[in-house]
Amino acid sequence: MGKVAFLFSGQGAQYVGMGKSLYEQNPTARQLFNQANDLLSFDLKELCFEDSQNLINQTAYTQPAIFTISQMALATLKEAGIKPDVVAGFSLGEYSALCAADVFSFTEGVELVAKRGELMGVASGDGKMAALLGLDVEKATALCSEASSKGVVELANLNCPGQIVIGGEAEAVNYACELAKGYGAKRALILPVSGPFHTSLLKETAQNFGQLLKMKNLNQPKLPIILNVLGDFYHHDLSLIDLMIKQMATSVKWEASIKKMIEDGVDTFIEIGPGKTLSGFVKKIDRSVKILNVEDVASLEATIKALQN
């Protein structure tokens, strides 16, 4: 077997019931969940397992919840003796990857991600995001260039071949969606998110978040990590804090990140945290690699079994 990469889920992967079987059946996972619950200003158990107030899709709640569930799943993998050769995470998931690489502790991670979610939740303004299906980067860039006559619209997430997400001011994003078919897009879908994440409209929010980051005593990563902003490995001569600040207002280079890992010898990807969104992206990038996921007790057991064979 070649190298193993751990990939951590981003926002949008949340669902009611996430993490429940890990919480009920694994003492380490339960301890992490309870630690996070003590730190947060809301009832994490109610949010993740019942969500009677319909808060799970609100950024300020979603981000710390997904981070916690991802760290619970990671802890169960570690207990099983499964270790990564490289880590990466999609947007919010990058914080789970940084925590996995010991850049900060779990409790510091909960605090950082809660603040990140809170700031991004109020930064939305009139911005929105849309997925473009069937366009390459060149055509999507040209489309954004034309649509920018109506306001800011930029490439936000470069997910996989044929799937690019754009973000910006509402009028400009709507206009880009109208123009998309003329550029060869199969579809253009407005996404149910609260703001234009990973665009320059979040620069000020990113700088505000940076104030908190700069107060933290962050460690250098103890594992190879690929960062969204770079689409490549982080090297110690770069400023990690600057890249973390930049991430909120810069494109997520996910396709480049996965290709870089494969180039480096990764042939097994384990998606950690709720859902299988990233697994779908990896499949579209390279069908020859092994893709597993861990989000509950059943998928943990299936992943352990698959790695033993």
UniProtKB/TrEMBL annotation:
Keyword Transmembrane helix annotated: no
SUPFAM superfamilies for the chain: FabD/lysophospholipase-like, Probable ACP-binding domain of malonyl-CoA ACP transacylase
Keyword Transferase: yes
This protein's UniProt keywords: Acyltransferase, Transferase
Class in the EC hierarchy, top level: transferase
GO CC, any one term: cytosol
Gene3D superfamilies according to UniProt: Malonyl-CoA ACP transacylase, ACP-binding, Malonyl-Coenzyme A Acyl Carrier Protein, domain 2
EC number: 2.3.1.39
Family: Belongs to the fabD family.
Protein name: Malonyl CoA-acyl carrier protein transacylase
Species annotation: Turicibacter sanguinis
Gene name as annotated: fabD
